Amino acid sequence: MKSKMKIRDLNLWYGDFQGLKNINMDIYENQIIAFIGPSGSGKSTYIKTLNRMNDLVEDARVEGTIKLDGEDIYSSKTDVNVLRKRVGMVFQHPNPFRKSIYDNIAYGPRTHGITDKNKLDEIVENSLKSAAIWDEVKDYLNRSALSISGGQQQRICIARALAVEPEVLLMDEPTSALDPISTSKIEELVTSLKEEYTIAMVTHNMQQASRVSDRTAFFLSGELIETDDTIKIFTNPAKEDTENYISGRFG
Ligand SMILES: Nc1ncnc2c1ncn2[C@@H]1O[C@H](COP(=O)(O)OP(=O)(O)OP(=O)(O)O)[C@@H](O)[C@H]1O
């Protein structure tokens, strides 16, 4: 297995409060890794460090290294726009732009300089197909992305993330605002995407973690308690805290 990202001795502070404590992890290529843990354990904080979304949080300070294909993403030489193109993100609540479905998907490629209409059409179609929503929206590409259902909006957001050809996709509780049918569509979609992408996903739903992920990392109070194959975490975890959490004794 090839490591796509290597996280070493990562610490993060919000002012005086330490949100992440000495995290070490490898994220393997073409796998799905799930981040689980109780509310406030640092999962969202952590996933945001992986494409420097935490740069946008005033007061947040990071120490340690995160390498993407061997390059330190916190190096002063890193172009954050390029980083976020390579490491895309999908959020908890679907957040399409107040634009047409087509323009939502074309937005990223346009900002990266693609203006050719045929090329944009192709990207829009391929991205919507990859996000398993093309058939549902192909006749309505000029409709507002806000006029469709929440589950469809979330797949539009995934298509928007895919349109700039990322290598890694970060998902912060991508289904927590969705109904069960939309949730299972997104789970199927995420499973199919790992052939081409490396995926990290925060989830509160342990069944979801066990259904879709190859590896699972358990967080507690800003610490990474253990990371292992998902099957191992859910059947025979090494640490008592993990056992207590997965058996519902806290969190
Ligand atoms: N901008 C911020 N400033 C100060 N503290 C913050 C900030 N964002 C998060 N925190 C704190 O950092 C800790 C970790 O929060 P985080 O949102 O990463 O947890 P989480 O595991 O994702 O929780 P949840 O499952 O509820 O989303 C919490 O104690 C939270 O209050």
Automatic annotation (TrEMBL):
Example GO molecular function: ATP binding
Domain ABC transporter: residue ranges: 5-246
Coiled coil: none
Keyword Heme: no
Cellular component terms (Gene Ontology): membrane
CDD domains in the record: ABC_PstB_phosphate_transporter (cd03260)
Keywords: ATP-binding, Nucleotide-binding, Phosphate transport, Transport
InterPro entries, alphabetized: AAA+_ATPase (IPR003593), ABC_transporter-like_ATP-bd (IPR003439), ABC_transporter-like_CS (IPR017871), P-loop_NTPase (IPR027417), PstB-like (IPR005670)
PANTHER family per UniProt: ABC TRANSPORTER I FAMILY MEMBER 17
Name this polypeptide is given: Phosphate ABC transporter ATP-binding protein, PhoT family
Organism in which the protein naturally occurs: Atopostipes suicloacalis DSM 15692
